[in-house]
């Protein structure tokens, strides 16, 4: 009778397919949530716009996380949708739990930066801080993890979106929070170090007595 076998290569292939499906579903749900929130905001006369972050008001600290999921109109949301979907998918291929940790660090650090240094009377919201953070994370991740495939991914991401990122962190653009972009980018690079992959420990050699 033939014996069922599974090779290491087959297991690795299935693992990659499973991760890709999980990453795709996660980002599809994330993007769907953003669009659903903007539909609700529009239908309620922009009632959700008040959850943006106003600087140096302690009561606004609670809006740091919600503000990363809200936008000021569908044009604003559309500008973030494609880069967030692509870069989020690429980042989530490294593991869903790792991605969620990276995203949480970026959102919180970016929101705190906006809260600290944004101009008085401004209100900041949008997923672009996370987009800039994922850019920084993907570009830095391969070098931090010493992973050739991730370095290639980071270089491709840099080639495609590098110009837009550089423009986005330049001060002086009306209605654009360059502070949020800059802090998001820095938080993403930090996340690459905080969530870097540890080398597996080598098993200790047996000791005979």
Automatic annotation (TrEMBL):
Gene Ontology molecular function, alphabetical: peptidase activity
Principal localisation: membrane
Compartmental location: Membrane
Keywords, in A-Z order: Hydrolase, Membrane, Protease, Transmembrane, Transmembrane helix
Bilayer topology term: Multi-pass membrane protein
GO biological process annotation, one example: proteolysis
SUPFAM superfamilies assigned: Rhomboid-like
Ranges annotated as spanning the membrane: 20-37, 69-92, 99-117, 123-144, 151-169, 175-195
Domain Peptidase S54 rhomboid: 59-197
Positions in coiled-coil regions: none
Protein name per its UniProtKB record: Rhomboid family intramembrane serine protease
Lineage: Bacteria, Bacillati, Actinomycetota, Actinomycetes, Kitasatosporales
């Amino acid at each position: 009778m033939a014996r069922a076998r599974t090779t290491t290569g087959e297991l690795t292939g299935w693992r990659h397919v499973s991760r890709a499906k999980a990453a795709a579903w996660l980002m599809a749900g994330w993007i769907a949530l953003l669009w659903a929130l903007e539909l609700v905001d529009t239908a309620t006369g922009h009632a959700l716009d008040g959850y943006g972050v106003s600087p140096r008001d302690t009561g606004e600290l609670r809006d740091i996380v919600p503000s990363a999921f809200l936008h000021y109109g569908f044009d604003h949301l559309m500008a973030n949708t494609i880069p967030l979907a692509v870069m989020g998918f690429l980042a989530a291929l490294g593991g869903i739990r790792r991605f969620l940790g990276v995203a949480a660090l970026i959102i919180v650090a970016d929101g705190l930066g906006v809260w600290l240094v944004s101009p008085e009377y401004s209100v900041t919201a949008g997923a672009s801080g996370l987009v800039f953070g994922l850019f920084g994370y993907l570009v830095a991740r391969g070098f931090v993890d010493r992973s050739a495939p991730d370095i290639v991914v980071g270089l491709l991401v840099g080639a495609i979106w590098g110009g837009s990122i550089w423009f986005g962190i330049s001060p002086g653009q009306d209605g654009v929070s360059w502070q949020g972009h800059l802090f998001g980018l820095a938080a993403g690079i930090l996340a690459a170090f905080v969530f870097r992959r540890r080398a597996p420990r080598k098993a200790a050699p047996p000791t005979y007595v």
